Amino acid sequence: MSASRREFLLGLAATGVLANSSAWASMSCPFRLAVINDELTEDFDRACQIASQDFGLSWIELRGMWKKNITELNAKEIADAQQILEKYKLRVTDIASPLFKVDWPGAPLSKNSPKRDQFHADYDFKQQDTLLDHCIELAKAFHTDRIRCFDFWRLDDPKPYRAAMNDKLREAAEKCAKHDLILLLENEMACNTGTAEEAVGVLNAVPNKNFMLNWDPGNAATFPDNTPYPNGYNLLPMERIGHCHCKDVKRKPDGKYEWAAVGSGVVDWVGQFRALQHDGYHYAVSLETHWRGAGTPEASTRISMQGLKDSLKKADISC
């Protein structure tokens, strides 16, 4: 938010005009409350309209639009997206790229290696350096300082390859640092870092200050008997958390899981939000619905956003 707009809003707040407005809530929220755009719809204008006007957000996370991964957009589509963001006065939390969501070369083929692309992205290992360069360009184009990545499809035994994987992540972080960008590693159950415990090991091995964690308690909760908060969260170095995804999980009697509306699953989001606020976290809390129980992506995301906001309210956090 610009200084002039902030001063204007503060002035209105002082007179009571903004007491119940979404603009005031956005300004006073300790987090960058956001939603991943294509969790709502592939129609980018519609997603931004809902995020801004219905959800009252000032931030949005970019992953895909118009049935394309963000890394596949052409110059005109990037320009169109920039205009839409300006139209709805939305800022971008990060580029939610598919970087390093590929098989590690020379390792046994992962059972998580997809037979199709992921969110309209289909890259192999040899393309990753070029992909990172493009993500850096996209971060600059969309005025964000963050790029999301993974650490390769999950192996039954990653130990023989872990040091080399860490070297690759370190190399990528160093390249990002030259452009004043932060590289965010998401803990993803289908990749080699799925839990807080695993994340700690990678963060210790890749100590670059601009290499941070995209903490996803919902992903960690897909592992049986894993408690993302408080157990997992309390292991994490607070200063290395640079982004947070919000989703929820229900566990089945057979040990498997299914996605759930935020606030209706096993993740203690009220406790997690309180802890993040207490620890001074002030980056994104971004809704990644995944749950489709309401029938459509938009309807399901609306319910999950309400669950997210209800959890914030129960945590005594104004957003």
UniProtKB/TrEMBL annotation:
<dbReference type="InterPro" id="IPR036237">
    <property type="entry name" value="Xyl_isomerase-like_sf"/>
</dbReference>
<dbReference type="Pfam" id="PF01261">
    <property type="entry name" value="AP_endonuc_2"/>
</dbReference>
<protein>
    <submittedName>
        <fullName>Sugar phosphate isomerase/epimerase</fullName>
    </submittedName>
</protein>
<dbReference type="InterPro" id="IPR006311">
    <property type="entry name" value="TAT_signal"/>
</dbReference>
<keyword id="KW-0413">Isomerase</keyword>
<dbReference type="InterPro" id="IPR013022">
    <property type="entry name" value="Xyl_isomerase-like_TIM-brl"/>
</dbReference>
<keyword id="KW-0732">Signal</keyword>
<feature type="signal peptide">
    <location>
        <begin position="1"/>
        <end position="25"/>
    </location>
</feature>
<feature type="domain" description="Xylose isomerase-like TIM barrel">
    <location>
        <begin position="53"/>
        <end position="309"/>
    </location>
</feature>
<dbReference type="InterPro" id="IPR050312">
    <property type="entry name" value="IolE/XylAMocC-like"/>
</dbReference>
<dbReference type="GO" id="GO:0016853">
    <property type="term" value="F:isomerase activity"/>
</dbReference>
